[in-house]
């Protein structure tokens, strides 16, 4: 990760009076986003398609 990007995130958090650590802090928010993105990538890889999309099927039954 680019150091400039990290500096911008920390600077933005400080400008908004957001804590860097702790409940609702920058680190918690970044961790939540990172885990969500990783899990979405895992499910997409597992299913072979995005979870919001229907998989190609031979039958004409609608995706639920």
List the defining traits of the structure above.
64 residues; elongated; single chain; mainly alpha
Strand content: under 5%
The helix count comes to: 2
Number of domains: 1
Specify the overall morphology.
elongated
Q: Work out the number of β strands.
A: 0
Task: Look at the helices and sheets and give the structural class.
Answer: mainly alpha
Spans with pLDDT under 50 lasting ≥5 residues? none
Rounded to an integer, what's the Rg over CA atoms? 18 Å
Distance separating the two termini: 38 Å
Q: Would you tell me the overall average pLDDT?
A: 84
The residue fraction in helices comes out at 40-55%
The biggest sheet, with number of strands, parallel, antiparallel or mixed sense and barrel status, is: none
Order of helices and strands: HH
Q: In summary, what is this structure?
A:
By secondary structure, this protein is an all-alpha fold. The chain has 2 helices and no strands. It is 55% helix and 0% strand.
Explain what the structure shows.
The chain has 64 residues and is mainly alpha-helical. It has one domain (3-47). Helix content is 55%, strand content 0%. It contains two helices and no strands. It has helices at residues 3-15, 26-47.
């Amino acid at each position: 990760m680019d150091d400039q990007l990290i500096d911008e995130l920390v600077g933005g958090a400080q400008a908004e009076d957001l804590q860097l650590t702790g409940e609702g802090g920058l680190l918690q928010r970044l961790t939540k986003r990172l885990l969500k993105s990783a899990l979405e990538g895992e499910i997409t890889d597992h299913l072979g398609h995005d979870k919001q999309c229907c998989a190609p099927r031979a039958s004409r039954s609608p995706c639920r």
